Amino acid sequence: MSSTLPPVPAASQSPAETIVEAIRRNLPHVPFAEGQTATDTDLAVAPEHLLALVTGLKTRKELAFDFLRNIAGVDMEAEGLVCKYQLYSFKHGHALQITVACPPDNPRLPSLTGLYAAADWHEREAAEMFGLIFEGHPNPKNLLLEEDLRIHPLLKAHPLQKVEILQGIEEGPPGFKF
Amino acid sequence: MSIWPEERTYTHADGFETVDMTINIGPQHPATHGVFRMVLTVDGEMVVDCEPYIGYLHRGLEKLTENNDYRQAMGFWDRTDYLAGMACEGAYCMAVEKLAGIEVPERAEYIRVMLMELSRINSHFMFLGAFGADVGSFGTSFVYAWRERERIYDLFEEVTGDRMFPTYFRPGGVAMDLPENFEPRVRWLLGSIRQGIEDLDRLLTGNEIFVERCTGLSPLATDRAINMGVTGPVLRATGLPWDLRKAEPYSIYPRIAFDIPTGRQGDIFDRYFVRLAEMYQSARIVEQCLEQIEPGLVLNPKLPKNLRIDNGECYVRNEGTKGEYGVYALARGGNKPYRMKLRSPSFCNLAGLREMVVGNYVADAIIILGSLDIVLGEVDK
Predict the structure, then answer these.
(1) Which one, of A45, A87, A91, lies nearest residue A70 by Cα?
(2) Cis omega (within 30 of 0) on the bond before B27?
(3) 10 Å Cβ neighbour count for B9?
(4) Nearest-5° angle of CA B225, CA B227, CA B233?
């Protein structure tokens, strides 16, 4: 018996169309492109409009995105760094993803720490792992890595190797490659 | 700000002078529940600043996942929240299934939910034991909790072959079917678990010193908790009945009846009590699963030998033991994920530590840290 489960009644699915419309109606001054991931509605926005968009999403009562779930950096190699923000509204129960693509030579984004206290550690992590620069972050130190380490391990160009070997302190096992 | 901030002096109204002092706690310290370090700045007995340092257990989970294929990488994921390995495997498998569009047989979903809920009970037992030790019942609560944990681990070993890191789930189901005597075995275990919870309940909630110590300590308002990104039992303790199993239901949870215990003011006692009540609910869920489960396949038979995903993006979240356990996954072809990001609940809850600790006594700072129930494997990835 391999009967399949009934589709999960995802709260973010059915009102998704109206969310985008509501955002367009509430924030007509912010240009964004609409998309869809396997789980959420996706808004692609330029870095200079991010702060205006998120401020509107948080403060407008119809939208009320009060919870910043997650910030994930992604290295798209030649196309530059991308930052993904996942938002959720406890009031309305809808979820949203924001995609911000940085130009390849300028990985700068506005910090969201003024809006969400949760952004603090997420941004520090994305900054150290990818070399993203969050302008206006109150404490832009390394979080998981050593304080004086200036490497960005999650970049695709970074080899999968022990830090000591990369720094030349230790020698790798001969002929060994992961 | 440096690790050792400049000493600050205060002159009080009566001419009495005090000097701030820094206290380093960790990374090797029993009260930090792992390799966590915090630097407290104290004025007398009061904490005026707290700087947490994490990363001592950073193993590069995300980088490793990007460099292993979809099935290989699962072993790293149950080492995140190592107290509830199967809850993490569940989230990881759900993300891969979402990307690849794989269906899971019904029986496998029931097995997963049962094991995930037993993991939750297991993790909460660890919390009760360690938290009791933090507050001052020394070894007693630990031993009580360990007795039950040992029995749960024995069951895990019988079912999966391993105790802590089972790697039992697979994208598309689970690795093998349940052993024959599973049902009577679990029913006996649930009885033992209920007895264990009651024992701990009597030991801790029945202790006036414990209750006095925890009630009203470091209360947290719901709005502030949401803004800080706090989820799980700590958020529910503030009075918001938000549980992803009900808010954004997944797997077979819509078919199962259970309640969401909440607290009133988000203080330490509420956090403790919410977890205690949750364990009864988890036991209830497992019992219902035992009644509803039917024989059948446990692994989707149409799985490809080499799992390749052309394109896809998802953010899968489930209710981990500590809060919202989210997996952001991006596939761009090949047999490896292009990007996998873990949104770990302990990490996000711990980010709010400074705000919760400042203004309390040093001895209470330890309890507040304990009440967040962090797992450093999950914080540091």
Answers:
(1) A87
(2) yes
(3) 9
(4) 30
Residues of B within 8 A of A145 (CB-CB) are: 55, 58
Distance CA(B192)–CA(B113), nearest Å, equals 20
Other CB atoms within 10 A of residue A7 CB: 7
Domains of chain A, start order: 26-166 (3.30.460.80)
Q: Are strands B46-53 and B37-43 parallel, antiparallel or unpaired?
A: antiparallel
User: Which of A69, A92, A128 to mutate: most B Cβ within 10 Å?
Assistant: A69
Chain center to CA of B368: 16
Q: How far is A176 from chain B (nearest CA, A)?
A: 16
> Which tokens go with A71?
């910030």
Structure confidence by residue, pLDDT tens digits, B30-80 = 777 778 888 888 888 889 888 899 988 888 899 889 988 888 888 899 888
Cβ atoms of residues B256 and B249 within 8 Å? no
B189 against A20, higher pLDDT: B189
Cα torsion B56, B61, B63, B65 to 10°: value is 170
ipTM of the complex: 0.86
| CATH number 3.40.50.10540 given to B66-380 | no
Instruction: Write out chain A residues lying below 8 Å of B64, CB-based.
Output: 160
Angle (CA) B203-B208-B213 rounded to 5° is 105
CB B281 within 8 A of CB B361: no
**For residue range B131-159, what is the model confidence (pLDDT) as tens digits?**
888 888 778 888 888 889 999 999 999 99
Chain A residues close to B347, C-beta within 8 Å: 121
- Characterize the bridge pairing of strands A81-88 and A95-101: antiparallel
Chain A residues touching B235 at Cβ < 8 A: none
What is the rounded average pLDDT of the residues A60-83?
Answer: 88
Contact yes or no for B297 and A1 at CB 8 A: yes
pTM of this structure: 0.86
Residues B11-23 as b/e (b if ≥16 CB within 10 A, e otherwise) read: eeeeeeeeebeee
What is d(CA B104, CA A5) in angstroms, rounded to the nearest whole number?
8
Among residues B346, B357, B370, the alpha carbon closest in space to that of B29 is found at B370
Map out the domains of chain B as residue ranges: 66-380
- Least confident among A2-11, A131-140, B282-291: A2-11
Q: Are A123 and A136 in contact (CB under 8 A)?
A: no
Q: How far is A90 from chain B (nearest CA, A)?
A: 8
Q: Are B23 and B362 in contact (CB under 8 A)?
A: yes
| H/E stretch holding B182 | helix B182-200
H/E stretch holding B342 reads strand B339-343
d(CA A90, CA B111): 30
CA–CA distance from A160 to each of A82, A156, B52 (Å)? 21, 9, 28
